[in-house]
Input
Amino acid sequence: MARMMVGGGVGLLPGLLGACYLYQPVPAGLQPQTRVSMVLSDYGRLEASRQIGPQALRVEGSIVSSDDTAYLLAVSGVKPITGSWVRWSGEQVSVRRDYVALLYERRFSKGRTALFGGAVTALLALAVTTHLFGIGADEVPIVPPGGGGQNQ
Output
């Protein structure tokens, strides 16, 4: 039982680590390798469907290059209007600027990371001090010397 709970906690770790990042509106001028999230307009969803699939609401990835008319993006994932994220492995897609309704930059958040680290530390301390999941508990019973068996 404890192993299942610990395994489940480890399975949640990648999702929780995502809490260490936040998305902010993009300042002027994107540098290559900037991680972005693009929310497509209705027109953009329709026009980009041949490249990234039907009803794509959001496209995430790293900027390869950009100019006045389009972004070249190494796509890491696409979120359709309904359904869950579809992971991509960095395929490059050109997304015209007029397809994008909102553009966000993914940034590391020191505050969220500190909060996450503090929460993990507190949970580990709680698990050890209360012997939660058997962590910190003595597994072997201590028997006093002399035994007190049948010969006494």
In short: The helical segments are 2-17, 42-52, 110-129. The CA atoms of residues 65 and 72 lie 5 Å apart. The first strand starts at residue 21 and ends at 25.
